[in-house]
Automatic annotation (TrEMBL):
Coiled-coil region list: none
Subunit structure: Heterodimer of an alpha and a beta chain.
Pfam family, one: Cys_knot
InterPro entries, sorted: Cystine-knot_cytokine (IPR029034), Glyco_hormone_CN (IPR006208), Gonadotropin_bsu (IPR001545), Gonadotropin_bsu_CS (IPR018245)
A GO CC term assigned to this protein in UniProt: extracellular space
Gene Ontology molecular function, alphabetical: hormone activity
Protein name, UniProt field: Gonadotropin subunit beta-2
């Protein structure tokens, strides 16, 4: 138990895993421009601990937890300015709730240096 005048370690002072608003860029091959869309993502700090010592015969599996989706839904966005013959509809995820869990490589970007959510390969953003 912490005393009233004690200071919390830095890790406990960071924002916890929570929903945050984020602008993401929508783009599709064949359509000329990127378009920003507001959505919710999961962001924040998850407390993890590694064992200090490992017994020789005891296997310890280190699973670092990350802030990730607990529940999400996909919404549709229709890109304007797409030429005839190109389907202008794209899907994007909307986080409904978040939790600290292992990173699901199939649905999440688990890299350290990932692209920013508003990155656009054509580097041309149109704001509507």
């Amino acid at each position: 138990m912490l005393k009233e005048d004690s200071v919390l370690p830095a890790a406990y002072q960071l924002p916890g895993c929570q929903l945050v608003n984020q602008t993401v860029s929508m783009e599709k091959k064949g359509c000329p421009r990127c378009h920003p869309v507001e959505t919710t993502i999961c962001s924040g700090h998850c407390i993890t601990m590694d064992p200090v010592m490992m017994a020789p015969r005891l296997k310890v599996f280190k699973i670092q937890q990350v802030c990730t989706y607990r529940e999400l839904q996909y919404r549709l966005f229709e890109l304007p300015d797409c030429p005839p013959g190109v389907d202008p509809v794209v899907q994007y995820p909307v986080a409904l709730s978040c939790s600290c869990s292992h990173c699901a490589m199939a649905t999440s970007d688990c890299t350290v240096d990932s692209l920013q959510p508003d990155y656009c390969t054509s580097q041309t953003l149109n704001y509507y």
